Amino acid sequence: MAGAAKVSDLILDEGAKGWSVPVGGPGRAVWEALMQAAVDVAVRAYEDLSPVQRERVLEESGNVPAQARSALVDVLRRARDFAGAARLLEAQGADAQAAALHEQAGALMLAAEAWLRAGERARAAAAFESAGALERALELYRALDARESMAQCLTRLQRPLEAAELYHALGYAHAELEALRGVPPEHPRRREAVLRMCALLDEQGESWRALVLLADARQESADARADEVLQAEHLRLLRHLGLGDGTSSSHESAPVTERASAAPDGYEYLKAIPIFGELALEDLKDLFRMAQQVAIPEDTTVLEKGARGTGLLVLLEGTVDVSSGPGLDARRLNTLGPGAWLGEISLILDGPTSAHVRSRSAVRALRVTRADFQHYLATHEAAALRIYRLFTHNLAERVRALSA
């Protein structure tokens, strides 16, 4: 109450210098309530106005003292008119506060411009990306040397070779491979992309998938079928896989049943995680490219009970033990292998880890850090809505199960 009385006194003091409530205006009830420091009454009065009348109040705010405008900003925030509050704050030069309110209002381009004026280039870039202004986002990411974000933007701008070069420099082989898949058959550097994809798959021990990819690529056009470099690589892979001397044409196209029998890769495992169950294809691909492959030695702590969660870990190879704690007397709760995932809750909720996880063997995994995931949510609005909806549903099911 003391704070409210002080605001009222300031407004009344200004009134003594010549300021008064706008006469006959639609917002008179709002201004009178503010004069009396009755903020809740002012909020309700503002909410009862029509859109045209609310616009008039915003226009009237230009003729009242700064203290009254600040009090009106508080009213607009409580009334959930985030766009109106952002406009008033922008007029006062409070761009960072205005940007956050523009985001709450869903006005992402306005938010991006406000973040930029506030000197928050990383937040401006994320807002531009989320708004679909990818070229502007790319420009800012380049200035910040944010290469992962640059690569994501380049992929979304359908510039896969540039994205692949960045992923190669970062050492993200799976992301480079996914980017190169976006090079169309008619692209003048298609052969280069195909050969690089084959090399990446071969290096990962997936020579059979490389052979399938190459065989399919050679069927894309007459030029591709006659290409001597592609033919030489095709024959090399056939010999490498022990499929005769590589001269038979029977291997030109791999059988569908054999293609389908290949072990699921990290993308398939990521796709199987429940909170990603409603993601559209391109959104899921973007998330997959954001993940980083990590190698964890045998008998190493993967997640420490009580420590803050660091993000999602999807097991590709090897096994881990999940225990009630780190001590020798701890109870082993589970043993997990390829396809299992850990830490998905820490992507959204910043809290301590509930179990202790240690590698039973050497492990290869995909990691999505909490920081990267928060950036993903900020730049993929539709995907964020779907993820939060499923997360909330799954959390409610867990609570219901515990209650039962």
TrEMBL record:
Domain of life of the organism encoding this protein: Bacteria
The Cyclic nucleotide-binding domain, residue ranges: 275-394
Gene3D superfamilies according to UniProt: Jelly Rolls (2.60.120.10)
PROSITE patterns named among the record's database cross-references: CNMP_BINDING_3 (PS50042)
Pfam family, one: cNMP_binding
This protein's name: Cyclic nucleotide-binding domain-containing protein
